[in-house]
Amino acid sequence: MFRRSLQLGFPRQVVSCYLLFCMVAITWLSLGVVYAVYSVLSHRNENRSLLVLGQTAAEAEIVYLRQGASGLPDLVDRTSKAHQIQWCAITDAKNQIIAHTDPGKVGLEQEPPIGEQLRWGAVTATKSQTADAQTVLNMHVPLEVQGETFGTLWMATPGPDFWSTAKAAAEVAPPAILVPLAMIAAGAFVIRRMTGPLEQVDRQLREASVSNTGTLPPLTKLPASCSISVGWNRIVDALQHQQPDHPKQSIAERVANAIQGRKQRDSLQVLDHMVEGFAYTDAEGSIQFANRALDALLGTTSSTDSPTGCPIRDYLAGHIDNVDELGKLLDVSPERSARAEFTRTSGQRQRVLRVERQPVKEGSDGHLWSIRDVTQQKLAEEMRGQFIDSATHELRTPLANIKAYSETLALMEDVDIEQQKEFCNTINSEATRLARFVDDLLSVSSMEVGSLSINRQNVHLERLFEEVVEKVRPLTSSKSQELGVDLPEKLGEAHLDKDKVATMLVNLLGNASKYTPEGGRVGLIVNKADNHLTVSVEDTGVGIPTSELPHVFEKFFRSKDPRVQKETGTGLGLALANEIVRLHGGEITVKSAVDVGSTFTVSLPLYQEARL
Asked: Which conformational region is residue 197 in: left (phi greater than 0), alpha (psi within -120 to 50 degrees), or beta?
C-alpha cells in the first residue's frame, strides 16, 4: 500500500495517510467508548454493592441483637430477593455458615474467594472470573455487636457482562462516532482542495527528476488561487529571469536552495511563536539563537538587550536570583543533560523558572536550552500539600471525638440519661461532620472526572431554606453570631436538585460563620424575580484580599490570611458550590473587603435544563 502511495505523488500520499490515520482513530475511539462504558458500569456495580452490603450488615447486627442467629436466614432471603446478587451468606466466628441463600450450604465452612483483592475500610472484596468469563465481586465485612465480632456477612454480585456493556455502549456510540466521521469527511474534502496546487507542483518536479536529456522541461505557472500557487509562480519568474551571477548553478539546484531556505525560515518562525523559551548555544556557550518567549520569561524586552552573541552564563546570571544554583547547572558535564529551578522577582511577584539543557550531538558540540514558567505548578503542589494536612485533621478530629465519647459511655457504670443524650448528640454531630467531609470529597472527585450530575425535581423553596437555616443555626449560635434571614412572603416552587442546592447553601453559610468572629453577623437574603432566584450570603468576617478573589473557586485554594489558616478547612467547599451552580445554569459571584466582610451572590434559573 505504501509503495503504491509513493507512485501516486506527495499530495495523494497526504490524503491516503490522512484516511488511514482516521480509520485507526475511529477504531480506537470505538474501543475507548466500550471500555469507558464498561468502567462506568463496574464502578456503579461496586458502589451499589457497597451500599447493599452496608445496609444488610447494619440490619444483621440489629437482628442478631434482638433475635439471635435464628433471625439471620430470613434476612439473607429478603436481601437476595430485594437486590440483584448471586448469593448471600452469614458465617459465625469460626467461619461456619449459619445462613445462606442456598440452604444446603448451612453448616459448611465458607471458603475464601480467589482473585484480585480490594479494600474499603473494613470491607474486603475479591474480583474473580466464573467459567463463562463472568466477573463476580465477592465482598465480606465483619459483624459486631457491643464491640464483639459474632460473624461475617458475605455477598457476591455479578459484574457487567458483554451484552449489558454492548447495550449501554450502543446508546452513546452514535453521537460519539458519527460526529468525528463527519468531521473526517469534511477534513478530507478540505485537504483535497488544499493539495490541488501541490499536486501540480509535484507533477512538474517529478517530470524534472526523471528527465535524462541534460536539460529540464519548462516549468509552468499555476492559477493564482492560494499562497502555494503564488509562491510557485514567483519561483518560476525568478528562474526565467535568472541573473548571470550563478551561471553554473542549475535550475534544480536553485529550486532546492529556495525550498531549503523556506524550510529554515518556517522552523525559526515556529520556535519564535512558542510559549516556552528556547535558545541554542555553540561549543563555547555563546547564544546563537533565542526566541521571543525567552526574552519575555526573563524580562528582556528591548532590542538593545538581545541575547544573541552573549555567553549563556552571563545572560542567565543577570536575570535570575539563585546564582549558586546556576553554577551547579553549568558545572554538569557538557555531554550530559542538566536541569535546575530558579526564582525570578519581578516587582512584587516571584516566579519559578525551570531551566533545562540538552546536548546537540549530531554535527555540533552545542546545547539546546529551554526555559519554562512552573509557578502555577508549584502553587498547585503547595495547595495540594495544604489540602492533605487539612484533610488529615478533618478526618482525625471527628474520629477521635467519636472514639473518646463512645469509650466513655462503655466504661462509665453510672451515667444519667441527660449525660447519655449529650454524649450521643456529640457522637452524632461528629459522625455527621465526617460524612459531610466524605461527601464533599466524593463530589469533587466526580466533578474532576466530569461525572457530577444533578437530579432536578419540583422543590418547595420555603421548606428548602428552612432546612438550610436549621442546619447552620447551631454553628452561628455556638459563636454568638446573629443569623439574619430575609425571605419573600411567597417563594413557591422551583425545578432544582434539592440536595445539591442545599449543600451549596450550607457551604456558603458555613464559611460565612467560620470566618466571622464571635458576635458578628451572617445574613441570608433571597429574592425571586421572573425566572430567576437570587440568593446572597453576607457576613462581617475577615474578608478576602482583592488579589485572591479570582482564585476563591479553585480546588484546594485557601487564603494566606493567618486568621483563615488557623481555621480547619480543605478548600473544596467553594469549588463544589461553583460547580453545582454551573450545572444548574446559574452564576455565582463574590464581593469582599478585608476586615469588612464578604458577600457571595448566587443566581439560579428556576426552570431550565441542566448543563452537561
From this structure: alpha
- At 214, give phi and psi (nearest 5°): 85, -15
For the chain, the helix, strand and coil percentages under 3-state DSSP, each to the nearest 5? 50, 20, 25
The whole-chain average pLDDT of the chain stands at 76
Nearest-angstrom CA–CA distance, 467 and 502: 8
State how far the Cα of 108 lies from the Cα of 98, in Å rounded to an integer.
8
Buried b (16+ CB within 10 A) or exposed e, 380-411: eeebeebbeebbeebeeebeebbeebeeeeee
| pTM (whole model) above 0.70 | no
- The 3-state DSSP class for residue 316 equals helix
Instruction: State how far Cα 604 lies from the chain centre.
Output: 25
Bridge partners of 604?
533
Q: Are 437 and 399 in contact (CB under 8 A)?
A: no
Q: Say which amino acid occupies 177.
A: I
DSSP category for residue 547: G
Do β-strands 123-129 and 116-120 pair in parallel, antiparallel, or remain unpaired? antiparallel
C-alpha torsion 131→134→135→141, nearest 10? -70
Confidence of residue 4 (pLDDT cuts 50, 70, 90): very low
pLDDT of 305 strictly over 80: no
- Residues β-bridged to residue 139: 125, 155
Q: What are phi and psi of 325, to 5 degrees?
A: -65, -35
Centroid of chain to Cα 373: 21
Q: Return the C-alpha cell found at 200.
A: 501540480
Nearest to 424 by CA among 439, 438, 410: 410
Per-residue confidence band for 466, with pLDDT thresholds at 50, 70 and 90: very high
Mean pLDDT (whole number) for 66-75? 85
Check residue 250 and report its DSSP letter.
-
Query: How many residues in the chain?
Result: 612
